Amino acid sequence: MEALRGTDGVGRASMAWWHVPGQGPPVVCVHGAGISSRQTLPVVRALEGRTPAWAVDLPGFGASTAPDHAPTVTGLADSLLAWLRVRGIERPCLLGLSLGTQVVAEAAVRAPDEVGSLVLAGPTTDPGARSLPELAARLLRDATREDLSVIRSVVADYWDAGVRRDVRSLLASREHRIETVLPRVGQPTLVLRGGRDPLCPAPWAREAARLLPRGRLVTLPGQPHALTAAAPGRVADLVGEFVRETARDRRAGAEWSPNV
Asked: What letter does residue 128 receive in the DSSP assignment?
């Protein structure tokens, strides 16, 4: 079945979305800087029939619109929360890729009763690599490890968003301090890292999971940064298992344990 598509007004912006039906806790996927739901839609399609899932375009990216001002992580988180309320999606698992991890972490802290759990795929930005030269070097290194089809779709997304918004979103990711947010995330959180991801190196991924009060780290060997496009089936399996596990514990009144 082809994913359903729609657009909702959110304040002065709009948010486009793609959706597949399913049973169980809802999952909402949020893309990274300068890109769109093209990079997360493969996971949504892989979740079809297992759990209801959405891929969204944040305001100003993909098929969404936004006022012409610099995006901020907190502003994007507020837009995401407003969209969840418009759609009536209750306590979803929010899956973020790259910059999307920062957006969903902020959303979880800003509205803890409205977010059930998180999946952080390739969390950014590594506090040890915030300089522009280092970030550029890591982006180029990752580009040599991504599949050509992923590179093509990322370039198309960058072109659609425009240079100014691309740069602004990358700067927003760089300036946001996710390491100060993670300790305040109370929801069960799964941290995913590609084994060949230069933007989320192993020491930073371990530190991100450690900072989370209820964080679990899973590494996908051999995978680059864009996990949702590079390994959608594996990511969907991990997410599906995670949301079932957290839902089962919640029904039983048990505390979800990050240790497996």
From this structure: G
| pTM above threshold 0.85 | yes
pLDDT tens by residue, 113-139: 999 999 999 999 899 888 888 888 888
256 DSSP 8-state letter? P
Query: Does domain 4-250 fall into CATH 3.40.50.1820?
Result: yes
- For residue 51, CA distances in Å to 22, 40, 176, 199 come to 4, 15, 31, 29
Tokens of 4: 């359903």
State residue 4 phi and psi, 5-degree precision: -70, 150
Q: How far apart are CA 206 and CA 239, in angstroms?
A: 19
pLDDT (tens digit per residue) in 138-161: 888 888 888 888 778 777 766 666
Q: Is-contact 39 32, C-beta < 8 A?
A: yes
| Tokens matching residue 199 | 């933007």
Count Cα neighbours of 252 within 13 Å in the Cβ-side half-sphere: 9
Q: Considering only CA atoms, which of 225, 216, 200 is closest in space to residue 128?
A: 200
Contact 95, 28 (CB under 8 A): yes
- Torsion 134-136-138-140 (CA) sign: negative
Q: How far apart are CA 188 and CA 190, in angstroms?
A: 7
**What are the residues whose beta carbons fall under 8 Å from the beta carbon of 125, sequence distance 6 or more?**
102, 135, 173, 174, 176, 178
Q: Tokens at residue 231, please?
A: 């390994």
